[in-house]
From TrEMBL:
Organism of this sequence: Azonexus hydrophilus
Name the record gives this protein: EAL domain-containing protein
Annotated transmembrane regions: none
Residue ranges occupied by any EAL domain in the UniProt entry: 23-277
Amino acid sequence: VKEHGRNNYRFYAPEMTHMAIDRLDMEGNLRRALERGELQVYYQPLVDLGSGGIVGAEALVRWQHPRIGMIQPGEFIPLAEDTGLIIPLGQLVLRQVCADILDWQAAGLPPVKISINLSARQFRQDDLSATIRNVLDETGVEGGRLAFELTESMVMHDVENTLVTLRELKKLGATISLDDFGTGYSSLSYLKRFPIDTLKIDRSFVRDIHEDKDDAAIAHAVIAMAHKLGIKVIAEGVETRDQLRLLSEFSCDEIQGYLFSRPVPVGEFSLMLSKQRSL
Ligand code: C2E
Ligand code: CA
Ligand code: CA
Ligand code: CA
């Protein structure tokens, strides 16, 4: 969202050259969108480099606005975070993911692990794990089918509370991924101090990996170190075969990126899973 004048936010959507909605409108719009079911969960496959198969997906929310068209999360997640709407939004995403997991199970599709992004405000909620447990109990989805993605900036401020929350999430059977690794004030001590299962190497380190020897060295070292600590590594933003080849040489566990697939609607992801079964 670009700041446009005082308190005005301006959207740029591919369907229309431009269209302005002020911030208040935007908040009201988002509130209504939540009620009217305009938010959809897309899935971007996580591909195992050993088997070449889909082993999971990251859930990424989209807003299908009736007039503007598709709005990307970068345009409304910050506002949702500021206004507290991220709490009902997060609930909606979790419920949708659990409903989709049940559908895939009923269709006999191979089990996959779904990664859900948590924002700072959600993470600080006192009843976070209780609300997640409620949804799991209601739907009957096993916690082990879920991973929660957190960023370094969320875990660094309050070590004690972070530890308590992470232990609660792990008690549900879920795993913990450290998102955007390398972009924050990365401290390797987090990896030791917190029960992190998976590390996601940020796209910015993957981008030039095939041209920049330093980036390649960093990626290689991060993967080796994570493995020594018993942590799995996912590379984000993999777009080319050259990147894939190097990551594979470095023994990266899984990749996510446009090379394999963009985030897709649930129907399309189900189709990918069913094709995989018939291989
Ligand atoms: P993120 O968690 O780092 O998600 C990865 C972003 O990288 C996604 O953007 C994805 O579409 C994009 N991406 C994946 N592969 C490639 C690639 O090969 N090349 C390029 N250039 N980009 C790639 P998206 O979907 O626009 O999401 C942006 C951010 O919005 C996410 O960043 C996440 O922080 C936030 N977000 C999305 N959904 C949710 C949600 O349900 N809850 C919360 N709290 N945050 C969300
Ligand atoms: Ca993420
Ligand atoms: Ca990320
Ligand atoms: Ca990122």
